Amino acid sequence: MSRPHPLRTVSATLCGAMHRLHNILWAALIPLAALFLFAGAGRPAGSAKAYRVYVGSYTTKTSSKGIYQFQFDPATGKMSALELAGESQDPSWVIVHPSGRYLYAANEHGKDSSISAFSIAAKSGKLTLLNRLPALGEDPCHLGFDHTGKFLLTANYTSGNAAVFPVLADGKVGEHTALVRNEGAPGPNHERQEGPHAHWIGASERNRFVYVADLGLDKVLVYKFDGAQGTLTPAAGAATAKPGTGPRHVVVSGDGRFMYVLGELDSTVTVFSLDQEIFRPVETVPMLPRGFSGRNDAAEIALHPSGKFLYASNRGHDSIAVYAVDAGKGTLALVADVPTGGKEPRHFAIDPTGRFLLVENQFSDTIVEFRINPASGKPTPTGETLAVPSPVCLSFLPLD
């Protein structure tokens, strides 16, 4: 049996070491590349000097024509005059692609619902329709991206299913790669929980899973996500809320340790901790003050970019509930209930710098601006208000 030449042995060892080093560096660069992609052209999302803001709205039985835009100055909070960005039927959710070149809309229109892809004109911000595909379900109400920006995730409310569409090189949406219907026992509210109702969808911190909040099933379901193929497979570990909660929207802490679930039907926020890929309930806190007995439907939930505060909106009480977040335990302590200055705050958004909170009051046709106190987290109205027909969603695009 012949022995290998010493120089060949050294060469092979060095080659093997270099190959392993290459793999380690490449594995480290992939998530970094995805992070820079999501920040928009390699820049942190909160560092832009100005933002273009797109507003989705309901067009049926309103004066709205679709998707509007305005410019926002994060230093002063100044909002420019509103203008139409692109006509679209009932764009109930709009989302800007991480590249900043495209915008996608969920056209919520019953059995004729669709997903629309638009290109964004760099200078004017005007939208040009690239293509439109059937939503593969009724009434899409939320969109999200996986953490590479290669796939668009869709939650269809009335049909209780979720779909995944690839984002093609030219910005169009391609034929779906996944379509799943949520399964489980419905909740006790016979009027609203007669079956599954997908209301929110998002990818996990490491892009391994996709979460779907289902109002009808009182669960946030977990699907294993194949980031190469864009497929979904049912997985264990769902976050199960109390019967009658009606999970509507979800926000996950920056480190992925805690999930905050807004209950539309019982006006609560439920905190879950992630323990070995299983979500375990920590606490449930009310969103309404004691003694309030009127109609209320909880709507939106968001974490401040600092992670120190959580915000949730009430439709009926027409307020924003503000909580301080315990970073170690994930628990919440009420800071304030702040009136939104209008009716039916279906959605609100915190600007990427964390200085301002913009509330869309759907039935008042207004966007009302609040300045956030960095110490307490409490929002205070600035006096800035923008008239928008039936606003129900907004999305920020950083400008150079």
Topology record:
Layout (H helix, E strand, L loop, with lengths): L5 H34 L10 E8 L8 E7 L10 E5 L3 E6 L5 E6 L6 E7 L6 E8 L5 E6 L5 E6 L4 E6 L11 E4 L16 E6 L5 E6 L4 E8 L4 E10 L6 E6 L5 E6 L4 E8 L2 E9 L10 E7 L5 E7 L3 E7 L6 E8 L5 E6 L5 E6 L4 E7 L6 E9 L3 E9 L1
Antiparallel strand pairs: 1-2, 1-28, 2-3, 4-5, 5-6, 6-7, 8-9, 9-10, 10-11, 12-13, 13-14, 14-15, 16-17, 17-18, 18-19, 20-21, 21-22, 22-23, 24-25, 25-26, 26-27
Commentary on this structure:
The chain is mainly beta. It folds into two domains: 1-39; 43-399, YVTN repeat-like/Quinoprotein amine dehydrogenase (Methylamine Dehydrogenase, Chain H), CATH 2.130.10. 8% of the residues lie in helices and 48% in strands. It is built from one helix and 28 strands. It has one helix at 6-39, and strands at residues 50-57, 66-72, 83-87, 91-96, 102-107, 114-120, 127-134, 140-145, 151-156, 161-166, 178-181, 198-203, 209-214, 219-226, 231-240, 247-252, 258-263, 268-275, 278-286, 297-303, 309-315, 319-325, 332-339, 345-350, 356-361, 366-372, 379-387, 391-399. Strands 3-2-1-28 form a four-stranded antiparallel beta sheet, with no helix packed on it. Strands 4-5-6-7 form a four-stranded antiparallel beta sheet, with no helix packed on it. It has a four-stranded antiparallel beta sheet with strand order 8-9-10-11, with no helix packed on it. It is globular and about 45 Å long. The protein starts with 5 loop residues before the first helix and ends with a strand.
